[in-house]
Specification:
Length: 471
């Protein structure tokens, strides 16, 4: 049995002078509140505040970071208890699933997921032994016992994690019932929605007509025309703002932007209502709706987030059997300079608008994104996202963007997670990596220590508040 140890200087440079500076910077910011403006946690956890079911239900079954790795090693998703779309049998013995996970926990060595999980076990659940095939059931019982106590209820953990704000991501057609429950309760936690219109702006989705009907129902607007569609979106954005929203989020394959004429938009939308769209309609309509979303953001003040470059559901076999968000989304090459040309030339010079762009294509950092954000007042760079939410990914991001865009054209860190207990772990990694990056600049006399302290606080807390208009 080996001890689970989180070293005080983890992730800092091995060179003593850099490590010492990094440690000094980290000590100054490590206890700042967590601001999480983009995430995917289950809001029902907080509105109902019921105990989490068990360790397997909390840490394995909903986390595609975990089961995609196990699936790559030929462990079926059924064996991990991942629900099927048609209700066909999967493993229901959660201790058996946990044991299988622990038997293969070594697969996560050197990965962000392994780092996050060890942090969760050590700091959230006070586990002091390494998870493996021999310790699996003992650790399961320890974690499960804690989950039944009041200190581990969702709202209590929110407070314990020192979360100042937590955002969920909600479909445009959502009635936000759980947000209403929280808003009308005595709990003081600040959990807000984010407006995600993809389900009604992406004409290629198989559930598009269903989502349009839901949008029509929730807004009480008969969406029988493009004009009424826009009216319904504007009405929902206003409702989301009333419920605390500060941002929208568009997940697109390509960041291509192009403004259609009113007649062109009407024509495509009419074809979509009739189920007669052609191959290019969805791409053109998405490009047009990015322009429309920017226009609406300029009018209502919601920050516009764009997450391009992920081919969703690449594994059609898994998608057909298990549905969305099962670890099958794969990055693709993306071009920004030409694709964002129309959007930035129409709206990018307006300082009253904030557009935050993310990427899964690291080759664009220094070539396109840093120069664009280093010029256009409206454009800011989101943090390393998804596959690059890692020690080396964050390091590459800072190295390739800081010289051109500085840090003040970025928006700090967001965790983008469904795994609620991992939020402190993810933020801690980001804080340590940023402090280490700044320490390297100090050691080479590129900046002085006073500037580094100011920058570390900005990266941890101030930029996210400013970027999402939270001040």
């Amino acid at each position: 049995m080996s001890k689970l140890t989180l070293y005080e200087n983890r992730f800092f440079d091995s060179e003593p002078s850099v490590r010492s500076i990094a440690r000094e910077l980290y000590e100054g910011i490590k206890n700042l509140p967590i601001v999480s403006p983009h995430g995917h946690t289950d809001l029902a956890w907080f509105s109902q505040n019921s105990p989490f079911p068990d360790p397997t239900e909390l840490l394995i079954i909903p986390d595609h970071y975990v089961f995609r790795m196990l699936y790559s090693q030929r462990i079926p998703l059924e064996a991990l208890g991942v629900p099927t779309r048609d209700g066909s049998p999967v493993e229901h013995d959660h201790k058996k699933i946990w044991q299988l996970f622990a038997d293969n926990f070594y697969l996560f060595d050197g990965t962000p997921t392994g780092i996050w999980l060890n942090h969760v076990l050590s700091t959230v659940f006070d586990i002091d032994e390494t998870l493996d095939l021999n310790t699996a059931l003992d650790i399961y019982d320890q974690v499960n016992a804690k989950l039944q106590t009041p200190e581990y209820l969702p709202q209590a953990l929110y407070d314990r994690f020192n979360i100042e704000l937590l955002s969920t991501t909600d479909p445009a057609e959502s009635d936000l019932k759980h947000h209403r429950t929280i808003k009308n309760s005595d709990w003081t936690g600040n959990v807000i929605p984010t407006f995600r219109p993809d389900g009604v702006t992406d004409l290629s989705r198989v559930d598009w007509h269903h989502n349009i009907k839901n949008l029509s129902d929730v807004t009480d607007i008969d969406i029988n025309s493009y004009k009424n569609f826009i009216h319904a979106l504007e009405k929902q954005r206003s409702y989301f703002k009333e419920m605390g929203a500060v941002a929208t989020d568009q997940g697109v394959l390509s960041p291509h932007t192009h403004e259609l004429t009113k007649i062109e938009a009407d024509t495509i939308f009419e074809r979509a209502l009739k189920g007669n769209t052609n191959a290019g309609d969805a791409e053109l309509f998405t490009a047009h709706m990015l322009m429309e979303m920017a226009k609406m953001s300029l009018e209502d003040g919601l920050v516009m987030q764009i997450h391009p470059g992920s081919m969703r559901n690449h594994n059609s076999v898994i998608f057909e059997k298990f549905g969305l968000d099962k670890g099958c989304d794969i990055p693709v090459q993306v071009e920004f300079t030409n694709n964002l040309y129309e959007l930035l030339n129409k709206y990018g010079n307006n300082a009253d608008l904030t557009i935050i762009i993310f990427t899964l294509d690291e080759t664009t950092y220094s070539r396109e994104l840093a120069p664009l954000a280093g010029h256009y007042p409206a454009l800011k760079l989101g943090p390393p996202w998804w596959f690059h939410d890692s020690i080396e990914g964050m390091k590459r991001f800072r190295e390739q963007t800081t010289e051109t865009a500085g840090i003040y054209n970025t928006v700090g860190f967001n965790d983008d997670t469904r795994a609620f207990p991992s939020i402190p772990a993810r933020h801690d990694v980001a804080r340590r990596v940023d402090c280490n990056f700044l320490a390297g600049l100090v050691a080479r006399h590129i900046i002085d220590i006073e500037a580094a302290h100011k920058m570390s606080r900005a990266l941890t807390y101030e930029l996210v508040k400013k970027g999402y208009n939270l001040n």
